[in-house]
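DM between two lab members

TW: hey, do you still have the Glutamate--tRNA ligase entry open?
JB: yeah, one sec
JB: this one, 446 aa:
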Amino acid sequence: MSKPIVRFAPSPTGHIHIGNTRVALLNALYARREGGTFILRFDDTDVARSKQEYADSIQTDLNWLGIPPDIVVRQSDRFDLYDAAAERLKAVGRLYPCYETQEELEFRRKRQLARGLPPIYDRAALKLTEEDRARLEQEGRRPHWRFRLEPTTVVWDDLVRGPCHVDCSSLSDPVLVRGDGTYLYTLPSVVDDIELKITHVIRGEDHVTNTAVQIQIFEALGAAAPTFAHHSLLITASGEGLSKRLGHLSIKGLRDAGLEPQAVASLAVLVGSAEAVRPVADLGELAKLIDFSHISRAPAKFDESELDHLNARLIHEMPYEAVRERLAGLDADAGEAFWLAVRGNLPKVRDAADWAKVVRGPVTPAIEDMAFIQAATAALPEAPWDTTTWKAWTEAVKAATGVKGKALFMPLRLALTGLDHGPELGALLPLIGPERARARLSGQVA
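TW: and the structure you got?
JB:
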């Protein structure tokens, strides 16, 4: 079996969201697992809406996710290929000119619906003579070009959906070239898939009907169609579809919010599959879990609260070396003991900076019962301190005061950290150290 060549083909008209990322990850990780090639193809034939800033953002997002492309191509550089393909289709009678306006087409559609007929294009343009076309063009009309579908049933074996078929006699001949000469998505996509030797087209199920049309275009151009896999789409927890235009769950937004790329990737790949959703820290391991036949056909909900939960679980297991540079950038690198002490309480890595401030100070202690705190101060063990110091100290305080349980631990936590929650003080106390601890227990900001 040849190694797969796959592509992720976003339009650089906005920031990609988690739904787009599901497509990118399934393609990239499948290629990685099988030793194949992952191509980033910018579908930027819509020159007016495509922006370089969005193309740059998409590449930044893919790099952040850990799936940089092996090859990057732009459709805007490849118009000669599309022009040549269009001419070939014209020469064999599969691409034909049409002159109807949008208003005329809408009128015909409504008339067909009123008659109980399917609202598909009636191919009236095929009946035009050369003289008819010349007259229409003299009137200032410019043709758009439709691909003439064969009235057959197109079948393919989908890796996700199994055997699929579409009756093309129920479809309108699709417009491939607009009246201004620009291309719609369909023809450039097929031409690129042929020229780039794409073996697998892995994309959302909203393209299923497109697939039948594209298979006919592949055949008309004398090429074999690739293998298709149409996976379920992601929707928000409230059931809405995702949209670049609305900014739903953009990768840029998730990154700026401090989420881990592995958490985003884990949920995007595993949700809506037979695999239990769980944090997978290694992309190679995540790639092994992809099984297209085990992806549900029902839309899968991407829940931000579940993402937060996965994110925290990842952080709680992260080794110090994995975050050392990031902690340094946050001015929160207080050593491995510090990281191991605080990571279990962190929803995001950047929150470690808050606990670094608690360790280093200044902290305003919260003290209500100074007599109890003074008794606790008197029982403080001598240096050096280690992870056994907290237990020894609290047992001594309990023996001296008779106070136990929460009534013992909470006042000490409030005095030492100014907070009523946080990491285990057995690990935190040695990091605070005797000097700062004594100052805070005396009510000083330290």
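TW: got it. The longest helix spans residues 18-34. The first strand starts at residue 5 and ends at 8.
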